[in-house]
Amino acid sequence: MLSLEEALRQSLSSWQFERRESDGMRLAGEYLFAPDFPGFAGHFPAWPILPAVVQLAAVRQLAELAVTGKLLTAGCLGAKFRGMVRPQERLTVAFDLTPLVDPVGWQAKFKLTKADGLVASGKLNFINQP
């Protein structure tokens, strides 16, 4: 069985930089989660929905692609989860990634959307993993 990280990577169908400048970058990715995606396991068997922690992991994964390195989540600010993601629904993960000074790292101001609107929004702080 695939690890959650590997399954998340396989569910990423595309990603791109929308802006890349010295003060940060904007990027977006599209995820499509198969019915057997391990994040759905047990959440909930008769009505599977993607857990919030997996949604946040998708933000981190895209940020790692942008900075070409491993990141540790150091904080979550003002996160609001407003919608559900079900199997076979396309999820767009978009965020502005700006550098942090103290601690040294990054902040992602994110929005997750699907065809019928906003799923989640907020900010995640990351530090570089040694």
Helix/strand layout:
Elements: H1 4-11, E1 12-21, E2 24-32, H2 52-67, E3 71-81, E4 90-100, E5 105-114, E6 117-128
Antiparallel strand pairs: 1-2, 2-4, 3-6, 4-5, 5-6
What is the CATH C level class, in words? Answer: Alpha Beta
* SS strand fraction: over 45%
How many distinct folded domains?
A: 1
Write the H/E string, N to C: HEEHEEEE
Question: Can you offer a commentary on this structure?
Answer:
The protein has about 130 residues and is of the alpha+beta class. The chain has a single domain, classed as Hotdog Thioesterase (Thiol Ester Dehydrase, Chain A, Roll). Helices cover about 20% and strands about 50% of the residues. It has a six-stranded antiparallel beta sheet. Strand 1 (about 10-20) and strand 2 form a beta hairpin. The mean pLDDT is about 95.
Short description:
With 130 residues, the protein is α+β, with helices and mostly antiparallel strands. The chain is 18% helix and 48% strand. The chain has two helices and six strands; from the N terminus they run H-E-E-H-E-E-E-E.
